[in-house]
Automatic annotation (TrEMBL):
Keyword Heme set for record: no
Name of the protein in its database record: Metallophosphoesterase 1
GO molecular function annotation: metal ion binding; phosphoric diester hydrolase activity
Ranges where the Calcineurin-like phosphoesterase domain occurs: 70-308
GO annotation (BP), single: GPI anchor biosynthetic process
Underlying gene: MPPE1
Subcellular location per the Swiss-Prot or TrEMBL entry: Endoplasmic reticulum-Golgi intermediate compartment membrane
Membrane-crossing residue ranges in chain numbering: 21-45, 357-375
Domain of life: Eukaryota
Length: 381
């Protein structure tokens, strides 16, 4: 009898030990799966991205010192969800994706500047002061950055409202957080940030003020760029900036009929490519687009808003890049643009983020395997 009890205790102990070892391994595999899908995959994907090469011209006045190269990230349409439309799980999933992507890119690529081309928030156009403060706090957590990287944000229609929703209060609270300005110059490179929502052309107070500021800025840049203006009385006493042609940054794209000519795996889906764009809603009006081109004669334009990629050539010589959305909520294959820029040249490349379908597929396959393992283990011997 004693021998039988001893044998029974030994068998029970072995069963317990085997179960414990199984659940320990099971827990470790689940933990490893989560770490891979929520951390490691971002490193594996973003490590494939590298800064594009750009030609540098030595300046005689600087004893053949090459032109300094500025490393810039451009992203758009993050659409941080608000308290009205944002389900907590949707918020958690998409914000975590953007946070991990952005922080991994900052750590690996070490950009000097990151521009977000509008629609940072999804509900800024109607959020209450309390909701706005909460959204800003979440933005600062998701897009926190080290001191050596500057983060500059351009206003979008979801941040301050469409033209019919925009007012001074919304614009000022946006400027208070993001220090929104029209000109940013660094390393001899001029970036012009346009509040494209205010380019309505109907003479509204905000629109008129914006256009007046842009005209003044274009005069300043033109006086700095062209030799013939240096001796002109119109340019006397004007602050001299770099003679570099500006890079235009805005939320709305310049006018184009549709995305029919856009190509690439992150361009608009086939069923949307031939849909005609509405002026002042999907794109700027023809008149506003021509004004910006005439005022600034930019060497490059970057925009957002459509959530899809596109490359357009304006007036046969001025390229515009529409930057796709950075969020899984708007597309399965988000990305951002990497730019190596000097005062006379630039080179761009695109860095894709992990596909949402890839991550979900990994979780589904792992879930099926785990279920099979559990069934196999729980079967009586």
């Amino acid at each position: 009898m004693t021998k039988h009890r001893s044998l029974s205790r030994t068998l029970n102990f072995l069963r317990f030990k085997r179960k414990s070892w199984f659940f320990l391994k099971f827990g470790f595999l689940v933990f490893a799966l989560i770490v891979f899908c929520e951390y490691i995959i971002y490193y594996l994907v973003i490590f494939q991205c590298h800064w594009p090469e750009v030609k540098t011209i030595a300046s005689e006045s600087k004893q053949q010192t090459p032109e300094p190269v500025l490393k810039v990230m451009f992203l758009a349409d993050t659409h941080l969800l608000g308290e009205i439309n944002g389900h907590w799980l949707d918020k958690l999933r998409r914000e975590w994706q953007m946070e991990r992507a952005f922080q991994t890119a900052l750590w690996f690529l070490q950009p000097e500047i990151a521009f977000i081309l509008g629609d940072v928030f999804d509900e800024g156009k109607w959020s209450s002061p309390e909701a706005w403060a909460a959204d800003v706090e979440r933005f600062r957590r998701v897009f926190q950055h080290p001191p050596h990287t500057q983060l500059i944000v351009v206003a979008g229609n979801h941040d301050i409202g469409f033209h019919y929703e925009m007012n001074t209060y919304k614009l000022q609270r946006f400027k208070k957080v993001f220090d929104f300005g029209e000109l940013f110059s660094i390393k001899g490179i001029n970036f012009v940030m346009v509040n494209s929502v205010a380019m309505e052309g109907d003479g509204c107070t905000i629109c008129s003020s914006m256009e007046a500021q842009l005209i003044k800025l274009s005069h300043l840049l033109n006086c700095s760029r062209q030799e013939k203006y240096h001796s002109s009385p119109k340019c006397s006493g004007i602050q001299q900036l770099s003679a570099s042609a500006p890079i235009l940054l805005q939320h709305y794209p310049l006018y184009r009929r549709s995305d029919a000519d856009c190509t690439g795996e992150d361009s608009a889906p086939p069923e949307k490519k031939n849909l005609l764009f509405e002026e002042r809603y999907d794109v700027l009006s023809k008149e506003a687009s021509q004004k910006l081109l005439w005022w600034f004669q930019p060497r490059l334009i970057l925009s957002g808003h459509t959530h899809s990629a596109c490359e357009v050539l304006h007036d046969g010589k001025i390229p515009e890049i529409s930057v796709p959305s950075f969020s899984w909520r708007n597309r399965n294959n988000p990305s951002f643009i990497m730019g190596s820029i000097t005062s006379v040249d630039y080179s761009l490349s695109k860095c894709f983020l992990p596909l949402e379908h890839t991550v979900l597929t990994i979780y589904c396959i792992a879930g099926i395997l785990v279920a099979l393992l559990m069934l196999t283990h729980c079967q009586p011997v």
